[in-house]
Specification:
2 copies of one chain form a homodimer. Chain A has 546 residues and is α/β, with parallel strands linked by helices. Helices cover 45% and strands 16% of the residues of chain A. In chain A, strands 7-6-5-4-11-10-9-8 form an 8-stranded parallel β-sheet. The first copy, chain A, has a 5-stranded mixed β-sheet with strand order 16-15-14-17-20, sandwiched between helices. A 3-stranded antiparallel β-sheet of chain A has the order 1-2-3. In chain A, β12 and β13 form a beta hairpin. The longest helix of chain A is centred in the middle third of the chain and has 29 residues. Chain A starts with a strand and ends with a helix. At the A-B interface, α13, α15, α16, α17 and α21 of A face α13, α15, α16, α17 and α21 of B.
Chain lengths: 546, 546
């Protein structure tokens, strides 16, 4: 098995898995199928875009007839699927139904999975339940680790790349321990277990925190899987936090309850739909009224197909967003699907140092900030780090001009270009420092303006929100507490009007960040701060002091 | 022609237009086609879901051969389209290309449109340009009004329902005048003109303000159309602000430039796509690499089809959202497509009294607040109005208990149920008023809790943002300034912990709105306000005073 990473954005990764002459892309979804009783079989899934499926070896093993058949044919022929096949061991039954009477030994089921040539078999782990106490959870984690080691010593089929389950329930310490210890053992994929019930309760904050905890501690060169993640509205956020793979039967389980996935108006019931709000091949062919009259089997099949079309196109959207460096933008859109997703997004801020480490240094086009939550992106943390550790005000500087943010960022504005021309003609130009006010970044020194991402973002400037203000103010304060002594005079430019992008006169908005910077500087360094209506008077003021 | 409204949400309306034995639903898009030179003809558009098309009568008229043919056949046979057909008069050419040499008279082109049996012809209006001065714009508006009156006096074909253009450019007074005066004249559809260039520059705030100004003043029983609106990311916001119909050639113009619509990662160029992030019949059949190798004509056709599939499914999504009462939820998701859409959304707040008037009184399921911007919805304005004008504290009340917002709203919380049981058992229950703290509404009196929309919203409570705080505080202040004298004692319940939805102990978040209410009440009415850890001590405190 080979796992090669082609591109990254946030903690999301586009990769290729090559295994036993099969190939699949990540991030990707393994649709879960029953081993022999499906509305859409494995080959049907392939037509819908599935490169991989997940099925249950335990159910196969318990059925004597099918067991013989699959042992003879191998799982690929048995399912009539030439893509990647992962198999579960029965542990999921245990977890999902709290069924502790799974009558099978690890030796039996693991050896069975090797014999049927599963590409990615799962060991018989001991899933932790969310309600488990620390002690119970700890014992289960240790037992799973033990089983993992035993599994390794028993392995016979070199074509099987084992999935190593990570557990710990709601306890970060256990998740950490499980991740670190499992990383020492050779597995093809590491997979976080015990999440499904949390997904079904929309506990996205909890599951995301579990994911991030594991991601921080797991070996990075293997795919990270989330067992049971099938809600497409959560895919992008999970991928941005490091999830490479997922498996789920949600597409079919929801279809059986006449539930229809959307990424815009929540999960709908078939009977509340007058028109299908979608353009997949199913939804462009039929109307909801027609589908309601169909036989149950056909109805379930069509709804399941729609649910899968939507899931797979969301994965393609996510992969495209990773390639474009737009994954955060996509996530900030998708979290509007549920308030719990918005709450979960806070985790990015809480773990900002971790995310900052992995954030791309350069992206080939500008960022779009269309949410208050945008300010939690790791780039902002990175900028603060830079101000803190790297940035020095040029040595010869004596004077500072602070220029307001206009409708177009930085030097893209004709008005700003005019200002800069005037400044650049000044004889003592070398002693003058120019800083741009920025609603998202607070202050940006002129010499950094061309470097990513400052010159290139389009944000919302009209309404300054709490978080945004806090961030801008934090950077401003930090900068001036550190650097104010370098300046003899600080001039703030607040013109009555300026020429905007459309070549029209416009006023500086009352919400412009420049007023916040003015307030701060006047309250702290009143003696050397002055406000001016134009560049000419600023230069005269500087010269006056010579 | 009949226009019947079936359902409404925000200012969006689902309606049916019946005209000349044809039927179409609103909101809807007229794809614009060339009269005789198309990559996708009218019948092809029908297969994609178009119920109506827009074509250009002026181009037909100028072509002698085609003119004879269409006069013989009528426009429906000529285009081979049995749906609704609207025709333009040449004024759009004038507007778009500032071409003042349109050599045609209103008499000629309007009579021509009647002869070819256009369902919705447009009069030869004089479009206002955005850069026109007030005087120039005013003259154009007057001229268009004059032409409208002349048109009415000349009408011969009773099967033609004329489209009346509304103009005014960026001047609200002119838009208002144009709307009021045109409303007095009999037109089938009223249509706002002069917008295309603003759409292309993403000036959504300006165009939305123009739309709202017209909507406020136009006769309400006719469809309101926006000429040239074809960017699907703007559809939902425009519909929420009263747009019933739109027409555009963007699907094909963009396709010619290899541009591909998305509603999640911006408009893409074909050459930057590795996978199609979509599941329409085109995108599930081909890969971007394949489409790039196709002949230009096929390539443009496929991209245009994708663009239309997306446009039509967005319209179905919008109509479903209107039926579900979820249009604001959808809009708050779609505005993330561009910061200018977020800025434009401010218009809802600015015109909140207008939107409040039309907001549905009852919706059959709860609201979802997943954005800071949610607080701008008209429902919040309505609540304030109610507090202001209707609400009275029950007469016998002497004491007040304020209960914090927990993870589940109001009485859905088991913990809150326990508190209420204790309160209800109290002998002097009738003298006790109960108020719920609410991060979105500030305070909600218990007796209103069951009425829409209080009991039924799912919001984000964890992070209080500026706008949200302001709204909660505004209601809280207003309520207590008006009603505080009714209470001898005010008790605020702030328990150390509570039992949450998952039956686990949880702490009250530091960001809980109860702390803001506490701060406010302590600063204003310190003498009668006390904080308690449990209901029992509150009741003891009240009894103590007897």
């Amino acid at each position: 098995m080979k796992f090669e990473i082609q591109d990254v954005d946030a903690l999301g990764r586009i990769g290729t898995i090559e295994i036993n002459n099969k190939k699949m892309i990540t991030p990707n979804l393994f649709p879960v199928i029953h081993p022999f009783d499906n509305v859409i079989g494995a080959s049907g899934l392939k037509d819908l875009g599935a490169q991989c499926v997940f099925t249950n070896a335990y159910i196969l093993y318990k059925n004597t007839d099918k067991r013989e058949e699959v042992l003879k044919k191998g799982i690929h022929d048995f399912l009539d699927f030439d893509g990647v096949i992962a198999t579960d061991s029965g542990a999921f039954q245990q977890y999902m139904y709290n069924d502790n009477k799974i009558e099978i030994s690890p030796e039996e089921i693991e050896s069975f999975q090797e014999k049927i040539e599963s590409d990615f078999p799962v060991i018989l782990d001991i899933p932790v339940q969310l309600e488990d106490t620390f002690e119970v959870a700890e014992a289960k984690v240790s037992k799973t680790l033990e089983r993992a080691k035993e599994n390794i010593s028993r392995r016979k089929n070199p074509n099987c790349y084992w999935i190593g389950p990570i557990h710990g329930g709601k306890f970060p310490d256990l998740l950490k321990k499980s991740s670190i210890e499992m990383s020492k053992l050779d597995f093809g994929i590491y997979a976080i277990g015990g999440l499904v019930k949390a997904f079904l309760q929309y506990q996205f904050e909890l599951t995301l925190n579990m994911l991030i905890t594991v991601k921080k501690n797991i070996i990075p060169n293997k795919p990270l899987h989330m067992f049971g993640l099938g809600l497409p509205q959560f895919f992008s956020l999970a991928v941005a936090c490091g999830c490479d793979l997922m498996d789920s039967a949600a597409y079919i389980l929801f279809a059986r309850e006449n539930r229809y996935f959307t990424l815009s108006t929540g999960t709908k019931r078939l009977d509340e739909l007058i028109e299908f709000p979608c353009h997949c091949p199913v939804c462009t062919k039929y109307t909801p009224a027609e589908v309601r009259t169909f036989e149950p089997e056909l109805r379930v099949e069509l709804l399941a197909k729609h649910n899968l079309y939507l899931s797979f196109s969301e994965l393609r959207t996510i992969r495209q967003a990773i390639r474009d460096g737009d994954l955060w933008e996509l996530v900030e859109m998708r979290i509007r699907n549920h308030p719990n997703l918005v709450n979960a997004y806070r985790m990015i801020k809480i773990h900002e140092d971790f995310f900052e480490q992995y954030e791309k240094v350069y992206k080939n086009h500008g960022r779009l900030y269309s949410s208050v939550e945008s300010v939690n992106r790791p780039l902002f943390r990175r900028y603060f780090n830079k101000l803190e550790s790297n940035y020095r005000v040029p040595k010869e500087i004596k004077y500072l001009i602070i220029i307001p943010e206009l409708d177009v960022k930085g030097t893209y504005s004709l008005e700003v270009q005019k200002w800069l021309e005037l400044i650049n003609k000044e004889v003592m130009r070398e002693e003058i420092h120019v800083i741009f006010a920025s609603s998202f970044y607070g202050i940006i020194p002129y010499e950094l303006m061309e470097s990513f991402p400052f010159g290139q973002h389009e944000g919302r400037m009209e309404i300054m929100q709490n978080d945004q203000c806090n961030n801008a103010l934090k950077n401003t304060k930090f900068f001036f507490e550190k650097n104010q002594a370098k300046y003899d005079k600080i001039a703030i430019l607040i013109p009555n009007e300026y020429v905007n992008e459309l070549n029209k006169k416009a006023e500086i908005s009352k919400n412009n960040v420049i007023f916040m910077i003015e307030d701060y500087l006047m309250s702290k360094f009143k003696d050397k701060v002055s406000i001016f209506l134009n560049i000419e008077s600023i230069l005269a003021y500087f010269n006056d002091g010579l």
